[in-house]
Amino acid sequence: MEPERAEAVVLRLHPVTESSLIVTWYTREFGKLKTMAKGARRAKGPFRGKIDLFYRDEILFLRSRRSDLHLLSDCFLEDPHRKLRGSVRTLAAASYVTELVETATEAEDANARLFELLVAALDALEGAVTAAVLVWFELQVLAAAGWAPRWPAAAAGTEKILKSLAGATLAGARRTRLSGGQVEEAWRTVWRHWDAEVGKAPRSRDLLLAEIRR
Predict the structure, then answer these.
(1) Spelled out in words, what is the top-level CATH class assigned to the domain 4-80?
(2) Residue of 9, 93, 104, 169 with fewest CB within 10 Å of its CB?
């Protein structure tokens, strides 16, 4: 069997033995994907220094015929996003971004647009963490997953801000400045919609909000 290739970002790591990990990736080619990385926890293992949270890699994997857990056969590091580990604030933001993608997607449902959004958001967070970018990203995930909120034509207040962010580019979101009160109201509105549509709130939400409030 020939290995399949994908460009991938690490969403989650789960130790399964003293030497191996289950890695949840979001890939450009296949969407959310799980692989067994045998030997990844060994000091001299084949994947040492190539797999960690938020890493962007090129991966080769052998597809399982019996389950959705495939076998990682090789891995090439492209971008470790090291700056995301520079503070609790950036770590909380990156964790939130990756959890949004993991929570809102089904296994192996390819969405190249969502992959590009994820990579762009992680790159942006290495420069600065702003609430507007995080709200923007959450709106983009909802839209990519088919759950975009419907804003009234004559939107005002918080809805007007969110409607503008939903239609903005990442560059536009980075230029947006929101007051503390606007951030909290924006997130309350988005989170009501997220919880109703997705049915599961991200566990990292409270940590993120606490860091943004500092």
Answers:
(1) mainly beta
(2) 169
